[in-house]
Design goal:
Two copies of one chain form a homodimer.
Chain A: H1 2-13, E1 16-20, H2 25-36, E2 42-45, H3 52-64, E3 71-74, H4 76-85, H5 92-102
Parallel strand pairs in A: 1-2
Antiparallel strand pairs in A: 1-3
Bound molecules: glutathione (2 copies) and FE2/S2 (inorganic) cluster.
One glutathione sits at the interface of chains B and A.
Chain lengths: ~100, ~100
C-alpha cells in the first residue's frame, strides 16, 4: 500500500524515527532520552495527522507487530555514519542499554 | 454542575480513586502500584465513557487543576480506617513515597 511504502522510505532515509503521540508520557520519555544522548530523531506525532494517524498506526502494526507508541526505528549503521560525518561521538553501549530499558 | 457533584461524591465515598485511561502506560503503572501495595482503588476509565469522558476530564481540571491522567485521589484517614477494618496492614511511608515518586 502507499502508506506502507511511505513508512519504509521514512525509516530507510532517517537514522532514528520515533512514531509518537504528543500527549503520551512514554513517548515524551523516549524523545527526551534521545535528546539527552545528543541524537535528533525524526518524530512523527500520530495524533496530529487527522484520520491518517490511526491508519499509520495500523500499517506500523503490520510491518512490526507493534501496535503501541512509542514505536522507535533505528538504522544503526546509518546512525553511526551520520554521527561520524558530523564529528559527533555516541556511546553506543549507553544507547542500546537505555533503549532496552525504556522499551520494557 | 451535576458532573462536579458526582466526582465529589465518588472521592468522598471511596478511599482511593484513580481516573485513568485503558491504553495509557502511566495509568497502568499507577494501577499496578496500588495492586502491589494491596490497595484496591476505584478505577474510572475516562476513555470508556463515550462523550462523558472528556467532560469528566474537564471537571477534574476545574476541581484539581490537573488535566492529565492518571489522576489519583486518596482519602488517607478513610483509607486507614477501611484497611484497619479489614485487618490489612499498610506501610504508609512506602505508599506516600511511592506515590510521590510516580507522580513526577
Ligand atoms: N511497554 C510498551 C508499552 C507501550 C504502550 O502500551 N503504549 C500505549 C501508550 S503509553 C499505547 O500505544 N496504547 C495504544 C494507543 O495509544 O493507541 C513500551 O514501553 O513501549
Ligand atoms: N507527570 C505526570 C504526567 C501526566 C501526563 O502527561 N499524562 C498524559 C498521559 S501519559 C495525559 O493525561 N495527557 C493528556 C490526555 O491524555 O488527555 C504524571 O506522572 O501524572
Ligand atoms: S498515554 Fe500515558 S504513558 Fe502513554
Amino acid at each position: 500500500s502507499r502508506l506502507e511504502e511511505t513508512v519504509k522510505t521514512t525509516v530507510s532515509e532517517n537514522p532514528v524515527v520515533v512514531y509518537s503521540k504528543t500527549w503520551c508520557s512514554y513517548s515524551s520519555e523516549v524523545k527526551s532520552l534521545f535528546k539527552k544522548l545528543g541524537v535528533e530523531p525524526l518524530v512523527i506525532e500520530l495524533d496530529q495527522m487527522g484520520p491518517q494517524g490511526p491508519q499509520l498506526q495500523k500499517v506500523l502494526e503490520r510491518l512490526t507487530g507493534q501496535h503501541t507508541v512509542p514505536n522507535v526505528f533505528i538504522g544503526l549503521l546509518f546512525l553511526l555514519c551520520s554521527l561520524t560525518s558530523h564529528n559527533t561521538r555516541l556511546d553506543l553501549g549507553l544507547l542500546i542499554g537505555a533503549l532496552n530499558g525504556s522499551s520494557r
